[in-house]
Structures are given as C-alpha cells and as structure tokens.
Amino acid sequence: MRRVIQLLAAMASLSVPTGTNAAERPTGYPRSYDTLMADAAAERQVIVYANADRAEMAPVILAFQKRYPGVTVNYADLGSNEMYRRFVAEMHGRKPSADLVWSSAMDQQVKLINDGFAQAYASPEKPALPASAVWKNMGFGVTAEPIGYVYNKKAIPQPPRSHAALEALLRQQRKALTGRVATFDPARSNTGYLYLTQDFAITRDTKSLVDAIAATRPQLSITTEPMLRGVAEGKLSIAYNVIGSYAVERARHDPRIGVVFPSDYTIVMSRLAFISREARHPAAAKLFLDFLLSREGQSLLAQHSLWPVRTDIRARRLPAGQARPIRVGPQLLVNLDRLKQQRFLRDWNAALTTGANSK
C-alpha cells in the first residue's frame, strides 16, 4: 500500500515563515535558477517515489520546504520492486506518476534511464559530486552506503570480521544458528538481488558462503528493518547483506546489536535518483534533486543515517581499500537479463533446498 508523507500547510507553518517572500537563490547558482524557482513555485508540488526510510527523510523534506516555501513534497515510500513496476505501468498507461524516482535498486534505475524514462539535467551541484556518481547527466547517486551484517552481541560475542570468517562461523555453529540467520530474498527484493550478484562478481567464494547460509535455513526478508529488529530482539543471531547506514543508526540507540563491515571487502551502494521524462512538475523535481545533492541536503542525510555521496561532507567513511562501490553504468544491466536472472534465482533456490535437506 502506498505510504505517503504529505507535509501539509498546517505542519509546514510551524517551521516555514509565512508571507509571500520568494525563496533566495542558493549561493553559487546561476541567475537562471531564479526562473527555475519561479516555475517550481507555480507547480506547487513535487511527487517523489523512493525507498529511503520515510522517518529518516522527514527532516530533509522539512528543510527543503523551509528553503522553498510553497513547494509541497509528496513522498511515497515504496519497496524497490513495487516502485519499478508501478512507475513503468503508469508511464506506459500515460497516467500521473512520479516526478523524481529515487531508489537503492541501482540496476533497475539504470535500466529505466537506459529505456528512456529519464530526462537530462545539468545540476549546479554536479561539480561537487564524484565523477562516478553521475551517469549521462540523468542518474545521480545521492548516497554512498556500505552493505554489511549485523549480529546479536549476546549470541555472538566475538563476531566474524570477514566473509571467510563468517562462513567458518556458519559451518561450525550450523545447528545453533539454524533458523537464526537472515538475509534479503533476492527473488522478492531487487536490492537483495543486486547485493548478492555483486558478491558473486567480486569473488567466486560467494557460492561457498551462500551454501553455508542456506544450510542454516535462513529467514528471508524484503527490507532491512525486520532483520534489524529480529537481531535486536534475539530472534535472529546474524543478518547478512543489510544496508549498513540503517544498521549503524539502529546500533547507536540499541546496545544489543553490533555491525560489521567485512574487512576483505564491503560493497557500497548509492541511491540513484532521476527526473522522469514525463514529469508534471519538472522544475520542482530539479529543485528537490539539487537540494538532496547540496551541502545542506547531504549534511542532513548524514545526520539521519544516510551516508552522503559528497566527500566534502563530514561523515563516517570506509578505508578506500575496503570499499567496493557499485559502479553506475550499463554493466548493471547484465544481471537484469531475464534468462540470467532466472538462472541465478534457480541456483539460489537449489542452494536453499539442499540446505534445508542437509543433516
């Protein structure tokens, strides 16, 4: 079901000055941005489809509306697969849809851009971004979030620090860990599919790790939150390939869980955003995208668990030799090939079946 943050005038009036004063052009932006701001004010709203947690995004949206009073953000918090299917169906049906699509399912985003669903935009913030964060002036990486695993400190007082050590633990304590390991379901979560295919691309040892996970009869999830909650409550001992930004934020307030970013390599994903080719509020979409990429927006994301892509923002970062960023580009389309995906999921299901039948 669609869940929408709609920051209404009554709420905005608590933090946004009243009156008719126009928003000020951000420092360093071209004079032509005044026209864009005026167009956005006339559009009055921007519709965003995203899978960044809505509770984390509320302060960012409030700050945007304070800077641009009169532009309402309608934020739909959707799962990655639901977002993809909904957006494509609405576009094909020529129905109202998102102005800005923002998702951690990087391969799906690249496919949508490649299939012609995005429009180009020369953001004033582009010079401040890593070159790898922008693709074809259409796809913009907004975050740089590590993928790791979480563990229950009571159940696992000495956590494994590498993928090999994790596999060894799973094999040595298989009986104790049966039913107490979780990971994304790659068949239902495109983000989970993306992370797992990246694991396989990095090392062939992933197959052995997957077999070890399968032998524990893992619980499969489509989002990070149930895995974090299960580990914290002690119903789970380990959750593999969780979104590290959410995990670190949870661990800050919950001493029951620990977070590991594997020392041998840690996948780093970026939530990609693009402006829809058929956006009904294109100027407002550009304003919101620029705000997400600005120093203010990136600093707010960093404060609320979403690690920023900009390197000039004070934030926690992994050592360069440990981080393995997922590159934005057409190579991400390979794993979305229907036959390749079917083969991958067939192998995954075979591993689960073998694991469930193992003694």
- The CATH superfamily of the largest domain turns out to be Periplasmic binding protein-like II
Helix tally?
A: 14
Please bin the fraction of helical residues.
Answer: 40-55%
* Helix and strand element order: EHHEHEHEHEEEHHEHHEHEHEEEHHEH
Shape: globular
Instruction: Identify the CATH architecture of the largest domain.
Output: 3-Layer(aba) Sandwich
Strand adjacency order, main sheet:
1-3-2-4-13-6-5
* Strand-residue proportion: 15-25%
Number of domains: 2
- The CATH class assignment of the largest domain is Alpha Beta
Head-to-tail CA distance between termini:
40 Å
Seen as an oligomer or otherwise, the chain set is single chain
Plain-language structure description:
- By secondary structure, the chain is an alpha/beta fold.
- It has 2 domains: 3-144 and 270-325, D-Maltodextrin-Binding Protein, domain 2 (3-Layer(aba) Sandwich), CATH 3.40.190.10; 146-268 and 333-357, D-Maltodextrin-Binding Protein, domain 2.
- It has 14 helices and 14 strands.
- The strands form 2 sheets. Strands 1-3-2-4-13-6-5 form a 7-stranded mixed β-sheet, sandwiched between helices. Strands 7, 8, 9, 10, 11, 12 and 14 form a 7-stranded mixed β-sheet that branches.
- Helix 9 (206-214) crosses helix 14.
- The chain starts with a strand and ends with a helix.
- Residues 1-20 have low confidence and may be disordered.
